[in-house]
Design a protein that fits this description.
two-stranded antiparallel sheet
Length: about 240
């Protein structure tokens, strides 16, 4: 079921709701996003539905075919690899900047959140919850960065398929991401930008490796083919 929207849905709020469903894996690659169904489920008009789908297409999450409609885009291993690579660089910068610019109060609150995350990882919290806690912390770290840096981080998040992170973290048994979080915490506490940045990047590199392993084991291609649509999308549009 779609998440409830505001009383007066707009194209951006609708796009955000659909984006979350795609990112969480509730809408699968190749699944058609029919305007009539969207309008009925979310209580919006076709103009708003079309604008929302165009926004998702601009972010690479949806493919729009003229006179046929829109479907959830497939993705390649290389595309996901690149997203993690960029996220690693940006999150490393955010951790470094926080060491330089965060106020004592802001840093103290951030360290408390890191402690809660590490405790949650040791007490059986779900992978989804741990990923979202991690992203909340990185949001706080990025909050003291420049507006340009924040916009870049937000842009990369809009394109991210979180369900790869959920599954890869759930299947990881060595606890490596949270060992890296301990490094981040130590770096933040010491205001050691190099240490905090390295730990942040290593968190993303670990998730990158796990996501690649997961995708390859499930038969995802390294490069998009000439027709990148999944078989069911090609069949539905024939």
């Amino acid at each position: 079921m779609p998440e409830p929207l505001a009383r007066s849905p707009t194209a951006p709020t609708l796009a955000d709701s659909l984006r979350r469903q795609i990112q969480d894996g509730l809408l699968s690659p190749g699944e058609w996003l029919r305007e009539a169904r969207i309008c009925n489920e979310f209580g919006v008009g076709r103009t708003i539905a079309r604008k929302a789908l165009r926004t998702l297409a601009d972010d690479g999450l949806v493919v729009i075919e003229e006179n046929r409609g829109a479907y959830v885009a497939a993705t390649s291993v290389q595309e996901v690899f690149d997203l993690y690579e960029v996220r690693a660089a940006l999150y490393g910068c955010a951790a470094r900047f926080a060491c330089i610019r965060a106020t004592p109060k802001h840093m103290g609150e951030t360290l408390d959140l890191v402690d809660k995350l590490i405790t949650a990882s040791e007490t059986g919290a779900s992978a989804e919850d741990l990923i979202h806690q991690s992203e909340d912390i990185f949001s706080r770290l990025a909050g003291v960065s420049s507006q340009d840096a924040q916009k870049m981080i937000e842009s990369i998040r809009r394109k991210t398929r979180w369900h790869y992170s959920y599954v890869s973290l759930a299947e990881s048994t060595d606890g490596a991401p949270f060992n890296h979080w301990r490094v981040v915490r130590a770096g933040l506490a010491k205001r050691d930008g190099a240490m905090a940045s390295e730990g942040a990047r290593n968190i993303l590199y670990h998730m990158q490796n796990e996501a690649m392993r997961l995708m390859i084991s499930r038969g995802y291609g390294l490069m998009p083919t000439e027709d990148t649509r999944p078989a069911r999308a090609r069949k539905a549009s024939a």
